[in-house]
Amino acid sequence: MKKVSKLDEYLFDLNGYLIIENALNKKELKDLNKILDKLKNLKNNEWAGHVHGHNYGGKDGLNLQQIYEAGEPFEKLIDHPSWINHMLHFVGGKDTFDQHHGPLFIDENFANIRGPGEAIGIHSGAYEGTQRAHYRFENGKFHCGQINILLALKDIGPGDGGTVIIPSSHKSNLRHPEYDKHVMKKDIVSSAESMTASKEIYLKAGDGLLFVDSLCHGSAKRTKKGERRIVVYRYGPSWGFFRHPYRPSKNLLKRVTKYQKNIIMPHEKVLSP
Hints:
By secondary structure, this protein is an alpha+beta fold.
């Protein structure tokens, strides 16, 4: 398993994100893309087994929600050795009440396929003060509400619609003055890369962008032909709950390991009155 280095700690604290190169190997990429080839024509609000087609009503592409239901290659991402130690470290809470139900909790997981002219507007930022996305470092330890791993399944370079972040905005007390021009809108595709101080992240297929959700982020508009393919798994403390009304299926809970099960459904044992 990849360990968290002192440099990882410093850069994450400074910028709010890290890039994990070669987080996925070539076989993993091939297997994941093969499954997405079969799912990419799913329409909004359609189901393929326990995977749900979804978008936010605009030109933000197709989200395949509950993607860990799509087969073993996606199940392996739940506690993948390339980033699971980073999640444990930055979400934090070891030996505290925050880990009462388990080590972590994945409250949302999806693949996103985006074509030419599509993007997602800027959103989030520490100024919002939301508990779910908060960043905190106290007494020498990280305590973060949500850490995302965004995995590139194809190369993402200029024109491919890369993720755009505002470095260090996970600590900002003020909203970006240009926020309203680039915020998520239903019928307008605004490229966040034109915002002052923004940075578009380029990734090779297999690389992962790890970031705290309070980091202000969005994407550039895709101008090239073809597809941008990414996968996002969002981790938080085990006391958290699902963002959307999805739940892991009984079959998935039977298939995964006990450790994985504790991450995707730490609330399964609930006492009834």
